[in-house]
Amino acid sequence: MSKNILVIGSINKDLVINTPRFPKEGETILGNNFSTSNGGKGANQACAIGKLGGKVGMLGAIGNDNFGKDLSNALSSNNVNIDNLLIKDNISTGIAVITVTEDGANHIIVAQGANALITKDDIKEDVISSFDIIVMQLEIPLEIAKYAAATAKKLGKTVVLNPSPAVKLDREFLSCVDILIPNETEIDIIGGIDYVLECGVKNIILTLGADGCDFITKKERKHFNAYKVNVVDTTAAGDSFLGGVVRMIADDKTMEEAIEFATKVSNITVTRKGAIDSIPTYNEVIESY
Ligand code: RIB
Predict the structure, then answer these.
(1) Given the DSSP bridges, would you call strands 94-101 and 80-81 parallel, antiparallel or unpaired?
(2) Residue nearest to atom 6 of ligand 1 (CA)
(3) Is 52 part of a structural domain of the chain?
(4) pTM to 2 decimals?
(5) Atom from ligand 1 closest to the CA of residue 12
(6) What rounded mean pLDDT belongs to the chain?
(7) Which DSSP helix (H) or strand (E) runs through 106?
(8) In a domain, 152, yes or no
(9) Closest ligand 1 atom to the C-alpha of 239?
(10) Which of 73, 78, 247, 269 could pair with 240 as two cysteines, CB 3.0-4.6 Å apart?
């Protein structure tokens, strides 16, 4: 039976401008179209798992506003259990301002809003106990992510961390992580591959954008290629990749099988615009490859 997954993390409304290029410092340029989409690394990852047919719940916070309502609907309509969704008063739902260039590259700035108000009291042991795999990112307060990881580890859960936005992570936090999924910039900020392995992380999946990813343990480093696709928007590429990995691990697939599946998922995501809406369903992945 497929394992139960809980995503603890961020929920954002994405405000997106497509632009011919990124502006230089101090420069104003004219962009193309503006759109909004439902996102946030936590919500994207939860919806990816839900769209791929996994059993998943979301523990995160929205504001008591229309953006929050949109995101709550987006989560439930993508097969994500929202029993542990928190509504915080007198604060906006998280916002991400995103610029996307014509070759699909992006810049993202997040105003955390309600995501910043998650407290230790919101991380309940009885909730974590009822899930098998706990997935986190770092768009919620660092001390809360660290507390959630320690609680999950104490309860014997598998902990998956996407360390984004990256900060230097201490040994105490990393020792609670079973699978770390950073990109090249993030692994450097955290402290490097050797440091992470030495702190007790058993599996690193280092994402390399169009070059695929490397699966790294103390014993081996194995490369996986991405497919050549027409890239439209890289937003949520990493989130959908993580969703694919976790979805497969929940079914007891090997790390290699999980990475191969996740590569297909993220390679479809980058051919579409937006965050949650760009992530494929399980059938779309199977039918495309
Ligand atoms: O990873 C992409 C996500 O980062 C966006 O959806 C945005 O909300 C930010 O959290």
Answers:
(1) unpaired
(2) 39
(3) yes
(4) 0.97
(5) 8
(6) 97
(7) strand 106-111
(8) yes
(9) 1
(10) 269
Q: Which residues line ligand 1 (CB under 6 A)?
A: 10, 12, 14, 39-41, 44, 96, 108, 110, 139, 235-236, 238-239, 275
Could you tell me which residues are beta bridge partners of residue 17?
Answer: 34, 99
User: For atom 9 of ligand 1, which residue has the closest CA?
Assistant: 40
Which residue type occupies 140? I
**How far apart are the C-alpha atoms of 19 and 60, rounded to whole Å?**
31
In ligand 1, which atom is closest to the CA atom of 14?
8
**DSSP assignment, residue 275?**
S
Q: How confident is the model at residue 234 (pLDDT cuts 50, 70, 90)?
A: very high
217: domain range?
A: 4-11+40-91+113-288
Supply angle C-alpha 80, 83, 85, rounded to 5: 85
Q: How far is the CA of 162 from the centre of ligand 1 (A)?
A: 12
| pLDDT tens-digit map of 160-171 | 999 999 999 999
Q: What is the CATH number of the domain that holds 268?
A: 3.40.1190.20
The residues assigned a catalytic role are 239
Confidence of residue 198 (pLDDT cuts 50, 70, 90): very high
